[in-house]
Design a protein that fits this description.
Layout (H helix, E strand, L loop, with lengths): L2 H11 L3 E4 L5 E4 L5 H37 L2 H20 L4
Antiparallel strand pairs: 1-2
Helix pairs in contact: 1-2, 2-3
Length: 97
């Protein structure tokens, strides 16, 4: 996830202003404590990270199935199935509350 992704998600969550301080750090400012926005921001970041992890499992699954097609290896078949189960489990974490 890039810095631009993080800034975009923070804006989607409701952060409206950035103040550049004399320390060189960017500080999110507004006129109160925005717990709901922070929770939405954290949920967006977590969802993006879950999806990135699930996609990595999907890529591994594809590679294992390609290898299985070449070799017929039970180990590759098992790894492909496990990779799919992993991606499903990662995505399901976002659905449970």
């Amino acid at each position: 996830m890039t810095r631009d992704d993080i800034i975009r998600m923070a804006r989607e969550a409701g952060f409206n202003q950035i103040l550049a301080t004399n320390t060189g750090a960017d500080v999110w400012i507004d006129d109160g404590f925005y717990v709901e926005e922070m929770e939405r921001f954290a949920a967006l970041v977590a969802a993006a990270e879950r999806e990135a992890c699930a996609e990595m499992c999907e890529r591994r699954k594809s590679l294992y199935w390609m290898e299985f097609d070449k070799t017929g290896s039970d180990a590759d078949r098992a790894a492909a199935i496990a990779s799919e189960e992993c991606s499903d489990a990662i995505r399901a974490r976002g659905e449970s509350k």
